[in-house]
Write a structure and sequence with these properties.
Elements: H1 3-21, H2 27-32, E1 38-45, E2 49-50, H3 54-64, E3 69-72, E4 79-80, E5 85-92, H4 93-123, E6 130-132, H5 142-151, E7 165-167, H6 169-175, H7 178-188, E8 195-199, H8 202-210, E9 215-219, H9 223-233, E10 238-242, E11 260-262, H10 265-268, E12 275-282
Parallel strand pairs: 6-11, 7-8, 8-9, 9-10, 10-11
Antiparallel strand pairs: 1-5, 1-12, 2-4, 3-5
């Protein structure tokens, strides 16, 4: 995540997180540190995994004090091991203390998602199926969580509701049917947008194909039903498998031949990767 992306898309969110943690002052730090003092602290990994969010971690301290220096020993996407030194933070000890928790929250969450995503993506290695995330993200964390999915080897589904047309069950109900929903979407949307439709059975699939859907989301289908759906769809639309897909059960769809599999678990169920800021001392 480069500096331009950070300033345009992430700085305001990071500042919100800092304001959440420091509503008026860091009373503990102000009590024990009555003035500026230069110090250094070490960022240490406490679990094996995949690191993601090093630039976000650094940006927290830079927004508090632009003179803070973060010396990184690893970059996003690196495999890391327990006990490994990831970075050193040098600057005003007051800034290091006040920014520590927010910076670690981002890094732990993003690294956990990257670690989980890589584990799931490895299970799909050698197949044609690409692993996608969903919009099941933590409020105000989507940019960070979807970035972490990419670091882990997954791909991003639509970023938000403005990013693409995905007709789901309630849209179909509101429109009066699959064919009606697709026709309305085609009429309204610019020609550059694809139309994806969620279907729950083969009858809905046939209707979606006849209406000209570009992508078919096979929602909560059994592996046997998905095989039939892929055979019906082949060459007429792309296919996506969705519905409670996790690391534990994804292997059931590997040989089915869907183009994509989307998993909300990548962002809503990944455990954090434990990292810690230690050994703070004056320099």
């Amino acid at each position: 995540m480069n500096t331009i992306t950070m300033k345009l898309n992430a700085d305001d969110l990071i500042l919100m997180a800092l304001k959440e943690d420091i509503s008026s002052e860091d009373v503990t730090t102000n009590a024990i540190m009555r003035g500026p003092m230069q110090g250094v602290a070490q960022l240490i990994c406490k679990q094996d995994g995949v690191i993601a969010g090093m630039d976000v971690f650094a940006r927290v301290f830079e927004l508090l004090d632009e003179s803070t220096v973060i010396h990184k020993f690893v970059e996003d996407g690196a495999d890391v091991t327990s006990g490994q030194l990831l970075a050193e933070v040098t600057g005003d000890i007051r800034v290091i203390l006040s920014g520590e928790r927010t910076a670690l929250n981002y890094l732990q969450r993003m690294s956990g998602i990257a670690t989980y995503t890589r584990a799931v993506a490895k299970l799909l290695a050698g197949s044609k199926t690409k692993l996608l995330d969903t919009r099941k993200t933590t409020p105000n964390m989507r940019i960070f969580e979807k970035y972490a999915v990419k670091v882990g080897g997954g791909f991003n589904h639509r970023y938000n509701l403005s990013d693409g047309i995905l007709i789901k069950d309630n849209h179909i109900g509101a429109a009066g049917g699959v064919r009606e929903a697709i026709a309305l979407a085609r009429e309204y949307a610019p020609f550059v947008r694809k139309v994806e439709v969620e279907v729950e059975n083969l009858e809905m699939l046939a209707e979606a194909l006849e209406a000209g859907a570009d992508i078919i989301m096979l929602d909560n289908m059994t592996p046997e039903m998905m095989k039939e759906a892929v055979a019906m769809t082949r060459g007429r639309a792309e296919t996506e498998c969705s519905g409670n897909v996790t690391r534990e059960n994804i292997q059931r769809i590997i040989d089915i031949g869907v183009d994509y599999v989307s998993s909300g678990a990548l962002t809503h169920s990944a455990p954090i990767l434990d990292v810690s800021l230690k050994n703070l001392h004056a320099v």
